[in-house]
Specification:
Elements: H1 8-27, H2 36-56, H3 62-90, H4 96-121, H5 130-144, H6 153-170, H7 179-200, H8 202-208
Helix pairs in contact: 2-3, 2-7, 4-5, 5-6, 6-7
Length: 211
């Protein structure tokens, strides 16, 4: 029986393919719809909003404070949702729609719980606790989605929850919180998350020029 001698170039190509597969498995199933630039933009939006509320239009009460930040949260959510939709519509990758549904399904329940708490507490005497609860809920949403995000997300999620818990311990009853709590927690937190997303997706961004 004659033994077929493989071309060394074929062997090198096969080894390269195996190495690529190994790298992909090591990196995990990070969802590419979470784009680093967009996440960073939401962070800078939070920092800018805190500056505006602090210097230009200070909140006259807790209701003004919450309405302002709900508007900022809605803008940030719209940016991210629009970016994910654009990614899904313009990508030809097989199985992407299924992956998108899985990623969104993990993220939304905690945000939904936050929306319910907001509706329940908005007009009550404990409305001032909402910024801390928002921070905790966002941390829980990140933890729930950790399989679609960089490994460092766990530490970032814990930081969000720790900041929220600390806020709940120190906020006086009936007080209007400082805009810098929201600005720094969500601003710095999202910028750090964007940094790790950028590191995780660097190869794909360089190859496709989409980030």
């Amino acid at each position: 029986m004659r033994t077929r001698h493989r071309d060394p170039a074929e062997i090198d190509h096969a080894l390269d393919r195996l190495n690529d597969i190994h790298r992909q498995l090591a990196r995990g199933s990070v969802f590419r719809g979470y784009r680093a630039k967009t996440v960073a933009l939401t962070g800078f939006l939070a920092l800018g909003a805190a500056s505006v509320q602090h210097f230009a239009c200070p909140a006259q009460g807790i209701a003004d404070y919450l309405v302002f930040w709900l508007g900022i949260a809605t803008a940030a959510f719209t940016l991210c949702a629009g970016d994910i939709l654009h990614y899904v519509l313009h990508s030809q990758r097989e199985g992407l729609r299924r992956e998108t549904r899985a990623a969104v399904a993990q993220f939304l329940p905690a945000l939904g719980a936050g929306a319910l708490m907001t509706a329940a507490l908005f007009q009550g005497s404990h409305a001032g606790l909402l910024p801390g609860l928002w921070s905790i809920n966002f941390g829980l949403a990140l933890l729930a989605s950790r399989s679609f995000l960089p490994r460092a997300t766990i530490a970032i999620a814990v930081a969000f929850m720790g900041a929220g818990a600390s806020f709940l311990q120190v906020i006086p009853e009936g007080a209007t919180p400082s805009p810098w709590f929201m600005g720094l927690v969500f601003g710095v937190g999202n910028i750090v998350l964007a940094f790790f997303l950028r590191l995780e997706n660097h190869d794909e961004e360089a190859g496709h020029g989409t980030r």
